[in-house]
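lol forgot to send this yesterday, sorry. struct tokens for the thing we talked abt
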């Protein structure tokens, strides 16, 4: 596996909507191993920009669990809820590419254009050329290119070549929501650029958001990181493991239980590890195992199963 040409800076960015579960531990472990295998920096960012969904104490619990598992951030933890001025400044910089939208969710869904790959309703462009008389601004949208100029592609380190036609598969997307919160797409792009992130390792459930983020990076004039979207963990019904599908919190009571949780996540990622005698021994084995996996089988992380 060749090393990046620039210093490696990775990050893990959980949303504090509840405790860390087995699915999010897989993403945390993959991002940590990739950073350590590249002798890089690993940052932690709490993505609590949607303050209405944040659970009190969840962020602190996640940070405590990461420390218990031996995953320590290189630097101060960043909280999105404390960075709203950065998102406001970014939106102001690209004001010529944005416009106010007065549509509500039902009106967008009724347009029958369908849904984007990530489940969001495709916006029909109703307010693209101005608000209708009597309408007020509900959200702020970013204007995507016209058909024929709207294809965004990138090479994912696991999924390979990915392309998306923004006008047909997402439409003009939201930068600031009707409830007044800045949207995830804007916050994550601004934060990654401000933190000089070079490599993003996260779950494949976010793969379909990446073309929009890359387009926004181009509009803002900031670098595009490398991406690796690891397979998501699913339950026995084939559903993505999440708080909504009943995922249980990772809550190891001692070092042995912490090793068990890490070993389960590592084996899901395809690392053929034996049970180590200690937490330190786990990391001593897991980091080189990750390097060997990507060196011998690039783009071939094992993606079946349940955890």
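and heres what i got for the seq, position by position
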């Amino acid at each position: 596996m060749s090393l990046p040409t620039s210093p490696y800076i990775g990050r893990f960015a959980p949303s504090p909507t509840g405790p860390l579960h087995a699915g999010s531990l897989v993403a945390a472990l993959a991002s940590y191993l990739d950073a350590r295998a590249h002798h890089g920096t690993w940052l932690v960012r709490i993505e609590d920009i949607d303050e209405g969904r944040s659970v009190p104490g969840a962020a602190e619990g996640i940070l405590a669990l990461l420390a218990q598992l031996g995953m320590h951030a290189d630097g101060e933890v960043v909280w999105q809820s404390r960075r709203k001025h950065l998102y406001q400044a970014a939106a102001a910089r690209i004001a010529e590419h944005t416009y106010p939208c007065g549509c509500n969710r039902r009106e967008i869904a009724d347009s029958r254009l369908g849904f984007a790959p990530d489940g969001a309703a495709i916006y029909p462009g109703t307010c693209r050329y101005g608000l209708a008389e009597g309408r007020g601004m509900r959200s702020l949208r970013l204007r995507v290119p016209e058909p024929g100029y709207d294809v965004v592609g990138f090479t994912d380190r696991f999924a390979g070549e990915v392309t998306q036609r923004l006008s047909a598969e997402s439409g003009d997307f939201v930068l600031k929501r009707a409830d007044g919160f800045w949207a995830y797409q804007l916050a994550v792009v601004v934060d990654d650029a401000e933190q000089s992130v070079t490599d993003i390792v996260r779950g494949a459930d976010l793969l379909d958001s990446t073309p929009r983020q890359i387009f926004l990076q181009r509009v803002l004039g900031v670098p595009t990181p490398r991406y690796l979207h690891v397979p998501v963990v699913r339950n026995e019904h084939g559903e993505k493991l999440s708080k909504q599908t009943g995922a249980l919190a990772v809550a190891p009571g001692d070092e042995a239980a912490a090793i068990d949780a890490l070993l389960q996540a590592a084996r899901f990622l395809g690392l053929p590890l034996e049970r180590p005698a200690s937490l330190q021994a786990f990391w001593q084995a897991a980091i080189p195992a990750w390097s060997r996996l990507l060196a011998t089988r690039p783009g071939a992380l094992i993606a079946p199963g349940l955890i």
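The chain is about 35% helix and 15% strand. anyway ping me if u want another try
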